[in-house]
Amino acid sequence: MSDRNRGVTASAGIALICILLLTPQAAAAVSWSDEIISDSTLDSIYADISGEYLIYSGSIGDAIDENSTRVIQIYSLDSRKERRIATSDPGYTLTGEGVDGHYAVWFSEPVLGSTTDGPNQIFLYSIDGDTSKTIRRSQTAEWPKISGDGVIWSESPNQSFESSIMHYDIRTENTTHIPGISTIDGAGIGFDGEYILYTDAETMDLVLYETSTGEKITVFAVSPDNTTHEIIFGTALGGDYVLYRKDVRTEKPREMYSELCLYTISTGETVLLRPNTGEVTETLTKQDKEATFGSLATDGTHMAWELAEGIARDRIIVLDPQTMGTSSLSPGTFVDFISIDGPHMVWLGSESIGGNGSIYLATMEMGDTMPATTKPTQAPGIGPVLTFAGLLAALRISRRSR
Q1: Distance CA 262, CA 244 (A)
Q2: How would you classify residue 375: left for phi > 0, otherwise alpha for psi between -120 and 50, otherwise beta?
């Protein structure tokens, strides 16, 4: 082969490699199949999922009636079977359930207006052993969260609006007070073992507390500007991410709207998301500001939120923060209390305002082509590596042809 032909062969090889590298590759389409899994005799209230188990609460009778009997159920995704693990005592209600690994938690408290004056109780349940025990009795202990071998909950010893945080070690059975945290929203605390996410009672800032060092990281600080009023209204913590909704009211111009924000812990960076699409944006459009959304959830690899599109027509949007690709599903109901873990997602769905609730389970399914809503981005730094590999391969083709 002549030198000229060899040069043409090498150039063609390089061009072919570059074309392959620069041509957008079709990503697998993500879709969701969903079904109702809760007991049809119950008015379901709330659900949480972890691995092969989901836990949910329900009411025997109308859930709006606080005197109705409340129950806690554990459902296995592997066996497709469930069992009742708790039933409320007269004058008490059960709520605040959560699951992680092979343990679950919830708490009991007297029904409002009840003559019962007993303390609240935090319960820890072993799924493998099918046994439960009380790990805390206190007049104000509530809203437990579980991650790994740790359980946290809020308490207000002085009957104040501010709550402190307690920690229980499942292995040692020791209970300790976590210093330096004060919040007015015990129900909204996030916990993933490594971090505790809370709204500070004094400043109303959104703060991460690192459990191993006691270091605090401010995720969001309230604006000191008197013409702009901001408040956190919903959070989710998982892996390297904090997803939160911030409600904003401005005087000039006079506006009220909500922002969906994604904070990356490792970089300390926050981006603004369009609630209708999940796209990153610098400023919100009029349509973005009119969006009604909530029920945030994340497992660290995906995040989800509910977007209202009409009466009993909520849509769930799921975002992959690595690719910024999105998928969605519309169950044709109101959607509340989303929880996501891996390829599974659960939520409370109801077909009307005040109607009975059911627990929905959705499973992620992968197709062959990219959905219209997905907008993938190339992973940082991978382009130069692939280009170099392509050039190297073309050079080898040229040498072999000599």
Answers
A1: 7
A2: beta
The more confidently predicted of residues 383 and 65 is: 65
DSSP 79: T
- As a whole number of angstroms, the distance between CA 274 and CA 317 comes to 11
Of 88, 109, 110, the C-alpha closest to 154 is 109
Q: Where are the domains of the chain?
A: 1-26+379-402
- pLDDT tens-digit map of 128-173: 999 999 999 999 999 999 999 999 999 997 778 899 999 999 999 9
CA dist 316 and 219 (Å) reads 25
Distant-in-sequence contacts of 127-134, Cβ < 8 A, 24+ apart:
127/53, 127/74, 127/99, 127/102, 127/103, 128/102, 130/83, 130/85, 132/85, 132/86
Among 197, 141, 150, 140, smallest CA distance to 170 is for 150
Contact present, 300 and 320 (Cβ < 8 Å): no
pTM (two decimals): 0.83
Sheet containing 175-183: order of strands? 142-147, 150-155, 163-169, 175-183
Q: Output the six-digit token pair for 195.
A: 């971090």
